[in-house]
Specification:
This protein is an alpha/beta fold. Helix content is 31%, strand content 24%. The strands form 3 sheets. The protein has a 6-stranded parallel β-sheet with strand order 5-2-1-6-7-8, sandwiched between helices. The longest helix has 18 residues.
Length: 337
C-alpha cells in the first residue's frame, strides 16, 4: 500500500499545533508526516505521534518531496506564495487562511455541509472562517428542508481566534486588573478583559468589518446561494476559547419546533443542548476541546413569519479551523481512487 505523505505548514502556531493534536487523534493509516514553518521556527522539535519531529523551513523546494496533502495554517501571504507551488507538484492543499476562500476556482468546504465541492478542487481547498463554519453546520438542515429568506448573525468570539497575542491580551489584562496595574493591549485596539469589542479585522468603507463581510460572503458561497440575504455583527469577548453565535433565521416555509429538533438530532456533527428547566444550553467552556457544533435556545421569533432563533457554540480552533481541515483530508483519503 502506498504511503500517504502529509505536510503540516505553520506547525508551530496555535492552529498548527492543533492540527497535530487532531491528526494524532484521527491516526490515519499508512501516513508519513513532515512539519514546516518559517525560518524563525525551523529546527524546533515538536512531540507528535509518540516521537519528536523537527520542524523544517518552508521553501519553494519543500514540495519537491512529493506530498499528497498539505494542511496550511501560516497566514494568507504564505498561502498565496506556497499553495500554488504545492498544488503544481500534485499536492492537495487544505488552506486555513483567508487567501483563497472567495476565489471562484477554489472550493470552500465544510464536510457536513458541502463535501461534494471537494471533487471540484484544482489543487487548493479553502477552510472557511471559524465563525462561518459553525454557523453553516447549524443552517444546512434548515436550508435544505425549509429554504432560508434571511439570516442575522451576532457573534461572541473568543480571543483564541486572534492567535497567541489575543490570548495574551486577555490573560495579561486579567492579571493587571487584579494587581491594579495599567495594561496596554498588544493585539486589540482596546483592553479585552471585562470588555466586549465590536471590531474584528479591519473596517470597510461600508461600515462593516472584514470579519462580518467574510461571514456574509462565505455563507452564500458554501450554500451555493448568492441571493441569500445575510447580515452580521461580530464581537470579540473576554472568553479564551469557543465562539458563541446568536443566529436569527427567517425560513421560507412554516415549521414545527419538534421538526427542528428532529432535524438537528439526525444531522452529523450537531449536538442539541436545549433544556431550559435544567439550565442546559451550549456554553463556550463546554464546547472547548470538542469537534461538534452545539445548538440550543431553539425558539420561534414571533416578530416575523417563520422566524427562528438559535444559539450556536463551537471550539473555534478545532471545528473552526484544525478539525474541519483534517475532516477534509479524511474525506479525500477515503474517496481517493
Amino acid at each position: 500500500m502506498k504511503v500517504t505523505k502529509i505536510a503540516v505548514v505553520g506547525a508551530t502556531g496555535m492552529v498548527g499545533r492543533t492540527f497535530l493534536k487532531v491528526l494524532e487523534e484521527q491516526n490515519f493509516p499508512n501516513c508519513e508526516y513532515t512539519l514546516f514553518a518559517s525560518a524563525k521556527s525551523a529546527g524546533l522539535k515538536l512531540p507528535f505521534m509518540g516521537a519528536e519531529y523537527e520542524v523544517k523551513e518552508l521553501t519553494e523546494a519543500s514540495f519537491d518531496e512529493g506530498f499528497d496533502i498539505a494542511l496550511f495554517s501560516a497566514g494568507a501571504s504564505t498561502s498565496k506564495v506556497f499553495a500554488p507551488i504545492a498544488a503544481s507538484k500534485g499536492c492537495t492543499v487544505i488552506d486555513n487562511s483567508s487567501q483563497w476562500r472567495m476565489d471562484p476556482e477554489v472550493p470552500l468546504v465544510v464536510p457536513e455541509v458541502n463535501p461534494q465541492d471537494i471533487a471540484k478542487s484544482k489543487g487548493i481547498i479553502a477552510n472557511p472562517n471559524c465563525s462561518t463554519i459553525q454557523a453553516v453546520v447549524a443552517l444546512k438542515p434548515l436550508y435544505d428542508k425549509y429554504g432560508i429568506e434571511r439570516i442575522v448573525y451576532s457573534t461572541y468570539q473568543a480571543v483564541s481566534g486572534a492567535g497567541v497575542k489575543g490570548w495574551d491580551d486577555l490573560e495579561n489584562g486579567a492579571k493587571a486588573y487584579v494587581a491594579e496595574e495599567p495594561f496596554e493591549p498588544k493585539k486589540f485596539p482596546h483592553p479585552i478583559f471585562s470588555n466586549c469589542i465590536p471590531h474584528i479585522d479591519v473596517f470597510l468603507e461600508n461600515g462593516y468589518t472584514k470579519e462580518e463581510e467574510k461571514m456574509i460572503n462565505e455563507t452564500r458561497k458554501i450554500l451555493h446561494d448568492d441571493s441569500l440575504r445575510v447580515t452580521a455583527t461580530t464581537v470579540r469577548v473576554p472568553v479564551f476559547n469557543g465562539h458563541s453565535e446568536s443566529i436569527n433565521v427567517e425560513l421560507k416555509e412554516p415549521f414545527e419546533l419538534s421538526d427542528i429538533y428532529a432535524l438537528y438530532n439526525d444531522f452529523p456533527g450537531i449536538v442539541v443542548q436545549d433544556d431550559p428547566s435544567t439550565d442546559l444550553y451550549p456554553l463556550a467552556c463546554s464546547a472547548s476541546g470538542h469537534d461538534e457544533v452545539f445548538v440550543g435556545r431553539i425558539r420561534r421569533d414571533f416578530s416575523v413569519e417563520n422566524g427562528l432563533n438559535l444559539w450556536v457554540v463551537a471550539d473555534n480552533i478545532r471545528k473552526g479551523a484544525a478539525s474541519n481541515a483534517v475532516q477534509i483530508a479524511r474525506y479525500i483519503l477515503e474517496h481517493k481512487e
